[in-house]
Write a structure and sequence with these properties.
The complex is a heterodimer. Chain A is an alpha+beta fold. Chain A folds into three domains: about 120 residues, Acyl-CoA dehydrogenase/oxidase, N-terminal domain (Butyryl-Coa Dehydrogenase, subunit A, domain 1); about 100 residues, Beta Barrel (Butyryl-CoA Dehydrogenase, subunit A, domain 2); about 150 residues, Up-down Bundle (Butyryl-CoA Dehydrogenase, subunit A, domain 3), CATH 1.20.140. Chain A has a four-stranded antiparallel β-sheet, covered by helices on one side. Chain A has a three-stranded mixed β-sheet with strand order 1-4-5, with helices on one face. In chain A, helix 6 runs antiparallel to helix 9 and helix 8 runs antiparallel to helix 9. The mean pLDDT of chain A is about 95. By secondary structure, chain B is an alpha/beta fold. Chain B has a single domain, classed as HUPs (Rossmann fold, 3-Layer(aba) Sandwich), CATH 3.40.50. In chain B, helix 3 crosses helix 4. Chain B starts with a strand and ends in a 5-residue tail after the last helix. The interface between A and B is medium-sized, with 19 and 17 residues.
């Protein structure tokens, strides 16, 4: 892979709306990624494994629970800093961002919001540094877009719960130390349980053969009569709204992350089009290429404005699930289209790992599917504006 | 051991350079500013290494208006303990040197580090001027610094080799590549920077002796001339008659 020459693109001077700390967080993450991750990401993607040696560094740049308060070992950043971190991570690779999203929004967030003080103190500081890595079990083999139909369940056995079932498409599962697992109790109510590696009957088989997010480890969670201590139940929220609250936080991060992937494709296409000479001049001078580039920066700029506003709403605790769905859906769709156009602009070189485009393109096929598919998000918006539920 | 590190604001290397006011002022519109890399990567990081080895305090000082605060905060995030900003326009090197020297004398700093130059104006004058004003020896463009007690051993590159110098006592040094390695601020540093002191002080005396008459961009690159690979004769003729290099 070539040297990472990426520079940010800010057509509408969005930086003027950011604080100095936002920019310091973003630029430090970018510098760390260029130094530590860019040189090895193509190799990790080809090998199909998450580069675990990066975990302490990810903790150091604040990528694990950026908004978790300092008292629990987090940096206590705002939602815009969280978004900018996700943007920088996904600018490099969606798999890298996925690992961070899962740790932050799907593991640390529920422990922080739905856990008790003892659980927070036990897990959050170690998750913030990366000493512990977590994963999140919601999706099941037969329940993807319909998580409420889950069959994973637990029974009260007096001094412990007995957990049975299986989860799949779980990022980080093959090496995670803990899993936040959503399962139904005997009354059919969904609760979150913290399951630790090493508990008898708990296994995490790896999912092989992915053509996407290859630099992120994915697997299953299998529970065969796992005895879970009662102290591991998240006590402060239950019902489907609890895991959906985590997804809102993760989807918000994805909305920012997708901008990062789009920016990287645009940046590469812009540079390539200025350097590539055909018919005696740079291809950037041809109208069809300019149309592609102009449309890319227009769509990126619109996504930046939408997402920054969403970040402001998140900071004020006013962002709705519908608003988050709209941003996730719009931005991932924008990024995947830009990746495809950018691939065309790179000609044959665009299919090699000399450039990041094809990797982004393949990664984004997962991003447009997970955390609510492209179509499901449309139905969330549809429900929000019409009041009519089209899911059922 | 208390160390004073001079930091300056410079445009990011990818910035588009333009001038206003009839070519007498740098156009800051849309420009991203960074800590001058020689100040940050070499002078500041070396100061932090010394502090980590032998204890003490690292203070960064910058002369400029509030637009310097982001680069000062970054220096605090990298690891400086405290910061001082002299609230005045950095009109020329002598004025800046006078401000820094006054502060250094008042607060008894006898190790003062700067970068070898700023990447925008390439002046490289500040260290020497400060040294003269505070009455300390000066070593320019140093690539290595070891400190044992009061004895500093300093290495600098010279034509065809290197020179090793010793100084017993205080000194001013300008740092060049090789002195240290860049440190990227981590989250702990960024969080700590929130509460580290940034003291803004008024300028004390000093005057500017130079003023800018004009800035000019380098001439635009000439068009490339493509010559057929088969036509070496034409290439030689053009190198001789047009480019006048052979």
């Amino acid at each position: 892979m070539r040297t990472d020459q990426y520079t940010g693109h800010d057509y509408y001077n969005m930086d003027d709306l950011l604080t100095d700390e936002h920019k310091l967080v973003r630029d430090s993450a970018r510098a760390w990624i260029k130094k530590e991750v860019s040189p090895i990401i193509e190799d990790a993607f080809e090998k199909g494994s998450f580069p675990k040696h990066l975990i302490p560094g990810l903790g150091e740049i604040g990528a694990f629970g950026p908004y978790i308060p300092e008292q629990y070992g987090g940096p206590g950043l705002d939602q815009i800093s969280y978004g900018l971190l996700m943007q920088e991570l996904e600018r490099c690779d969606s798999g890298l961002r996925s690992t961070s999203s899962v740790q932050s929004s799907l593991v640390m967030y529920p422990i922080w919001k739905y856990g008790n003080e003892e659980q927070r103190m036990k897990y959050l500081p170690k998750l913030a540094t990366g000493e512990f890595v977590g994963c999140f079990g919601l999706t099941e083999p037969d329940h993807g877009s319909d998580p409420g139909g889950m069959t994973t369940n637990f029974k009260d056995k007096g001094d412990h719960y007995l957990l049975n079932g299986a989860k799949m498409w779980i990022s980080n599962s093959p090496f995670a130390d803990i899993a936040v697992v959503w399962a139904k109790n005997e009354a059919g109510r969904i609760h979150g349980l913290i399951v630790e590696r090493g508990m008898e009957g708990f296994t995490t088989p790896t999912t092989h053969g992915k053509w996407s997010l290859r630099a992120s480890d994915t697997g299953e969670l299998v529970f065969d009569n796992v005895k879970v201590p009662k102290a591991n139940l998240l006590p402060n929220k239950s019902g489907l709204g609890a895991p959906l609250g985590c997804l809102d936080s993760a989807r918000y991060g994805i909305a920012w992350g997708a901008i990062g992937a789009a920016l990287d494709c645009y940046d590469s296409a812009l540079r390539y089009s200025k350097e590539r000479i055909q018919f005696g001049r740079p291809i950037a001078g041809f109208q069809l290429q300019q149309k592609k580039l102009a449309e890319m920066i227009t769509e990126i700029t619109k996504a930046q404005m939408l997402t920054l506003r969403l970040g402001q709403l998140k900071n004020e605790d006013k962002a709705t699930s519908g608003q988050i769905s709209m941003a996730k859906r719009n931005n991932v769709d924008m990024a995947i289209k830009i990746a495809r156009e950018a691939r065309q602009m790179h000609g044959g070189m665009g299919i090699t790992n000399e450039y990041p485009i094809m990797r982004h393109m393949m990664n984004l096929e997962s991003v447009i599917t997970y955390e609510g598919t492209h179509d499901i998000h449309l139905l969330i918006t549809g429900l929000d504006i019409t009041g009519e539920n089209a899911f059922k | 051991m208390n160390i004073l590190v001079c930091i300056s604001k410079s445009p990011d290397t990818t910035s588009k350079i333009a001038f206003t006011d009839g070519g007498t002022k740098f156009d800051e519109n849309g420009v991203q500013f960074i800590v001058n890399p020689y100040d940050e990567w070499y002078a500041l990081v070396k100061a932090l290494e010394l502090k980590e080895a032998i204890g003490g305090k690292v203070t960064v000082i910058s002369v400029g208006d509030a637009s310097n605060d982001p680069i000062i905060r970054k220096s605090l995030a990298v690891g400086a303990d405290e910061a001082v900003r002299v609230d005045a326009a950095d009109t020329d090197a002598l004025f800046v040197a006078q401000q820094i020297a006054n502060y250094a004398k008042e607060h008894d700093y006898n190790i003062i580090l700067t970068g070898k130059e700023t990447i925008n104006y390439n002046g490289g004058q500040l260290g020497g001027m400060i040294a003269e004003l505070v009455g300390l020896p000066y070593v320019a463009m140093a690539t290595k610094l070891d400190l044992v007690g009061d004895l500093a051993t300093i290495e600098r590159e010279i034509q065809g080799g290197s020179e090793v110098l010793e100084i017993n006592g205080g000194f001013v040094l300008s740092a060049a590549k090789g002195m240290a390695e860049q440190r990227i601020p981590n989250m702990r540093g960024i969080m700590a920077a929130r509460s580290k002191p940034l003291n803004v002080i008024p300028p004390s005396g000093g005057e500017s002796h130079t003023s800018v008459v004009n800035y000019e961009l380098p001439p635009a690159k000439a068009q490339c001339k493509y010559i057929d690979a088969e036509n070496a004769g034409e290439l030689i003729a053009l190198l001789h008659s047009e480019a006048k290099v052979i």
